[in-house]
Amino acid sequence: MLRVEGLHAGYGPLEILHGISLEVPAGSLVALLGANGAGKTTLMRTLMGLLPTRSGRILFADQEIQRAGVERRVRLGLALVPEGRELFPSLSVRENLLMGAFGRRGRAAIESDIERVLAYFPALKARLSLPAASLSGGEGQMLAIGRALMGQPRLLLIDELSQGLAPAIVESVLAVLLRLNRQEGLTMLLVEQNARKALKVANLAYVLQSGSLVLQGRPAELAANPIIQQLYLGGEASAEAPEDAGTGQVSLVSGGPAISNGAEEEGGNG
Amino acid sequence: MLALLQILLSGLVTGSLYGLLALGIVLIYRTTGVLNFAYGALAATVTCFLYVLLTGPHLPFWQALLLSLLFALLLGAVVERGFARPLLAAPILTKAIATLALALVLQTVVQALWPQLTSPVHFPTPFEGQALRLGGLYLSLADGLALLTTALLLGLLQLFLQRTRLGIAMRATADSLEAARLMGIPVGLIFLFAWMLASLLAAIAGVLIAARQTVIDVQFMDPVLLLAFIGAVLGGLDRLAGAVVGGLVVGLADNVLALLLAGHSLGTLDLGDPGIRQTLIFAGFVLLLLLRPRGLFGGAALRRV
Ligand SMILES: Nc1ncnc2c1ncn2[C@@H]1O[C@H](COP(=O)(O)OP(=O)(O)OP(=O)(O)O)[C@@H](O)[C@H]1O
Ligand SMILES: [Mg+2]
Q1: Is the dihedral of CA A241, A254, A263, A51 positive or negative?
Q2: Which residue in B67, B113, B27 sits closest to B207, CA to CA?
Q3: Nearest Cα to Cα of residue A127 among A87, A180, A80
């Protein structure tokens, strides 16, 4: 569905992403992990076209889109639930949903998709005519996801799903995303601070560090990786001091764009 | 009593015109972040264009008006592409100051093209000298048209912004540019459209004001713009309905002050002078801003997201 090859991007003179290569297979739910400032949001924004690609390729549904504008990428079926949600605060919940369907024609289909979103997130039903600014954090995230769904995306990018949400709400939102992925086959790339949760639901995971992918593989294997355990899962510290773990990670940088679990084995050796 | 009603009526007329102008100011500010001090010059430029059509080739009024409104749309588009778009990412103060330069440029061009407008000229309309009588109240036809037109425009604009896809997208863009882009909204076209719409509103307000004053020159909108700006800021600068109410408040204050101060003097100072009135309104406005920095209606920001 999505293939990224040697992607470089950044802000002004600053390069943040140093040659990212990854793949999101159709129908999968891929987790993207990484510490604060690793470049996860930068990657999401570059995929959407909010930030220009400096070099490298983005292939979406077999088309090169790294030079396409945001509008075209949205039309092709990309949607982003941005970090911080970025709702339209003065617009009503319903108007927010309508804007998610901006590029679409056909009133009836749009109305029935609003019903669909409300079926997934019943909490929004009573709020339809209220301004989005009046929503709670959980409702806001539901609206942000619902709004992205209104564009009928083929690939849904989600940046910081659980940011500022109570654990119970994260669970219920995650359950909806799982239903969308497993039952409706919606492909997803999920950025999540809570690595434990993300690894539990994903089919494939990548770890980003300082703008480069340092680990990739199946969630179960990653979860067993001692470095992941220590850095992201809060597992018990190994014999190594944290600084050693940090320098050890640099050696984990995986070479090619291919998805492999070689990195994980290297991790075992390091 | 009748005198007071009469004053309130003309307050309503001027207030609705200020409101119309304030609306355009807020529209531009909300969608493109430009505090547009050239708004009066835009209005004046189109009105002068209409004057030239009326007095040069002697076109029939309605035909000339139609051409002028088309010219207003074009002018809005040119200003957006040539002036506002390159400044999009600039700090808000830079943009505001740049609009002062734009106003100067517009006035200079008008003066160069049509030097007769450097000094006051008579602005001819079909409504001149006609009036309506409502009970004991007197309403000039130009004033009546101003009331009717602004009410109609405000209603239409409200419908457009609340009910149409494009209107909602305009509000969405004003709310969050980034999110609007994420929705696939063509924000460049939205900016262009906002400037064209605001320019049209400015032109209509300019023509209505010229029709009631019957005398214009290239700078005839300058004093009006100051009061319209005060109305916009009173309304909170970020809400369209607030702008209209803010404009009405300023218009009413202006007329009530005129009634109270007429014929009075302070030593050698004639309090009935319009300059004194403006100074008083401005002082009141500054005082009010000190007490309520977010305008008359600006409550706490509702952002909980
Ligand atoms: N607008 C910007 N201009 C310049 N640098 C930026 C900008 N936004 C982010 N950065 C820098 O880019 C790097 C990556 O930031 P990014 O937001 O992509 O990280 P992240 O992985 O999403 O972090 P977080 O978990 O905190 O959301 C950081 O060093 C950050 O300081
Ligand atoms: Mg981030």
Answers
A1: positive
A2: B67
A3: A87
Ligand nearest to the CA of A82: 2
From A50, A71, A134, residue closest to B186, measured CB to CB = A71
What is the sign, positive or negative, of the torsion defined by CA atoms of B201, B203, B208, B213? positive
Residue A270 has pLDDT above 70, yes or no: no
**Mind listing the pLDDT tens digit for each residue in B41-77?**
999 999 999 999 999 888 999 999 999 999 999 999 9
Secondary structure class of B228 (helix, strand, coil): helix
**Residue B175 contacts A, CB cutoff 8 Å:** yes
Give helix B187-213 / helix B165-175 axis angle, nearest 10°. Answer: 100
CATH superfamily of A2-77+153-252: P-loop containing nucleotide triphosphate hydrolases (3.40.50.300)
Q: Is A58 helix (H, G, I), strand (E, B) or coil?
A: strand
What share of chain B has pLDDT > 70, as a percent? 95
Mean pLDDT (chain B) is 87
Write the single-letter amino acid at B289: L
φ, ψ dihedrals at B265, nearest 5°: -145, 155
CB atoms within 10 A of CB A234: 10
Backbone angles phi, psi at B100, to 5 degrees: -60, -40
- Pocket around ligand 1: residues whose beta carbon is below 6 Å from it? A 11, 14, 16, 34, 36-42, 83
Q: Hey, what are B242's tokens?
A: 């607030």
pLDDT of res. A225 = 80
Residue count of chain B: 305
CB-CB neighbors (< 8 A) of B188 in chain A = none
State how far the Cα of B277 lies from the Cα of B22, in Å rounded to an integer.
20
The residues facing A175 across adjacent strands are none
pLDDT, position A266: 39
> Is residue B302 very low, low, confident or very high in pLDDT (cuts 50, 70, 90)?
very low
Q: What is the C-alpha to C-alpha distance for residues A33 and A35, in angstroms, rounded to an integer?
A: 7
d(CA A73, CA B127): 54
Query: What is the distance between the terminal CA atoms of chain B, rounded to a whole angstrom?
Result: 51
**Rounded to a whole number, what is the largest CA-CA distance in chain A?**
62
Across the range A40-69, mean pLDDT stands at 95
Q: Which of A7, A33, A40 to probe ligand 1 with, by most ligand atoms within 8 A of CB?
A: A40
Distance between CA atoms of residues A234 and A231, nearest Å: 6
Locate the domains of chain A by residue range.
2-77+153-252
Considering only the beta carbons, identify the residue of B176, B183, B186 that sits closest to A100.
B183
B215 phi/psi in degrees, rounded to 5: -130, 130
The ipTM, to two decimals, is 0.83
Output the pLDDT for position A6. 96
